[in-house]
Amino acid sequence: MPGTPRAGIIPVTPFQQNCTLIWDDATKVGAVVDPGGDLDRIEAAIREQGVRVEKILLTHGHVDHAAGADELRERLGVPIEGPHQADRFLLDSLPETAANYGLEAARPVTPDRWLDEGDGVTVGGLGFDILHCPGHSPGSVVFVSRDARFALVGDVVFKGSIGRTDLPGGNHEQLIRAIKEKVLPLGDDVAFIPGHGPTGVLGEERVSNPFLQG
What we know:
Elements: E1 5-12, E2 17-24, E3 29-33, H1 39-49, E4 52-57, H2 63-66, H3 69-76, E5 80-81, H4 88-92, H5 94-101, E6 120-123, E7 126-132, E8 141-145, E9 150-154, E10 157-158, E11 161-162, H6 172-183, E12 191-194, E13 200-201, H7 202-208
Parallel strand pairs: 3-4, 4-5, 9-12
Antiparallel strand pairs: 1-2, 2-3, 6-7, 7-8, 8-9, 10-11, 12-13
């Protein structure tokens, strides 16, 4: 019997990145997705919800999503899973990138497990399938709970928009193809939490997202 997912969004960093605390409502076992910074705020949310975090998940390697991951791994004593290893160059250069943006000091990140297309990730009783969706970054991944009709999409797609493709390793055609061939076919009823901004539903994006028409 699959668990029921619950999620809380914790906006972090000056980029207002949606760090997401996701957990299995039955067991209160969860994961922190994309801890880009503001770790005290993230830990306060974990305590407030009474969640036992068993891992950190990364959708991709950009500084606003991953800069706090290594320190949070140390604080919580849990492994990091994701993203795809094509983002290794971004994770290796996090200290320099953070300094360039004037963000709090960051450490490089080496995940305990790289993720690839077709892999599975568990969080308590929840199961997520992995889609490798390059374009915003080469190693971006999407976490999909087919049972719960729910996805964590990072910066692949937003409500009414898509991820930037003008950063190192970005590719607009690749991103559009990943969204149209992998993400939208998950179904119109699938709800998603993006890396920034409001949550959405894939059916609405398929019909009205201006970047996905034609």
